[in-house]
Amino acid sequence: xxxxxxxxxxxxxxxxxxxxxxxxxxxxxxxxxxxxxxxxxxxxxxxxxxxxxxxxxxxxxxxxxxxxxxxxxxxxxxxxxxxxxxxxxxxxxxxxxxxxxxxxxxxxxxxxxxxxxxxxxxxxxxxxxxxxxxxxxxxxxxxxxxxxxxxxxxxxxxxxxxxxxxxxxxxxxxxxxxxxxxxxxxxxxxxxxxxxxxxxxxxxxxxxxxxxxxxxxxxxxxxxxxxxxxxxxxxxxxxxxxxxxxxxxxxxxxxxxxxxxxxxxxxxxxxxxxxxxxxxxxxxxxxxxxxxxxxxxxxxxxxxxxxxxxxxxxxxxxxxxxx
Length: 323
Known about the structure:
- With about 325 residues, the protein is α/β, with parallel strands linked by helices.
- Helix content is about 35%, strand content about 25%.
- It contains eight helices and 14 strands.
- It has an eight-stranded mixed β-sheet with strand order 8-9-10-7-11-12-13-14.
- A hairpin with a 4-residue loop joins strand 12 (about 230-235) and strand 13 (about 240-250).
- Helix 3 runs parallel beside helix 4, helix 4 (about 100-110) packs antiparallel against helix 8 (about 290-320) and helix 6 (about 160-175) packs across helix 8 (about 290-320).
- It is globular, with a radius of gyration of 21 Å.
């Protein structure tokens, strides 16, 4: 089978990681690295043995698919152009900065019969894959995602940068959209929201509490899920899943413990393999455009609630300091 010819668009840190996994894949060939910064494109291309380009139009006819790792603000323009040129696209999360842009990407993929996969990377974490198999009726989530400060991705709020991973997973596991959202957040090191705390309630009574921060003193990636007779504790970074089960035995309750057997693998490689499968079979990707648009919608609704809460706090502060 011939290798799938891929381009990476955006030669920043994410883009270079994509270049690496493509080079390591037996099913794909890196044939182009594109970046509007000619020097950055040249350095990345030289490092991974592919020709550099500064304009996406130059790769038409040379590639079967593209990894879009440019800033979120550019996803719609670049992504729609690629799809119109009959190029399958794996776009980094979030799919777009707003719902109208996300809809245009989804519509373009449908109109031109192209694959549109979105890089919600945690969906390919082996521990999350095991959690998906174990989940029965989620009733309560407690999720923490903390990063130490970095100047990366400051063009979006922490909700779209970090929390959206967990929002996407919760929506997938509940197969529903939240009926009620309560949220608070603050800006510390950037003009955007850097810390956020959110409570999502779903129509069936399930509740999800999520906290995300990009100015923490440590890195934390943990999810806890409660469902009838079970508590599941997931560590994203360690790719570990512990299961505590309550069973009845001779009219007494017993608590069993199991450490799930998980084969650790790099999620980025699993994500690429899934994209290559969709390109080859034309089947809808696991992280499809419509699914990513739903996650984006929930994330944007969270940001609206944060803004509402901030206005209430501001009024309270002003009232308290009136002479």
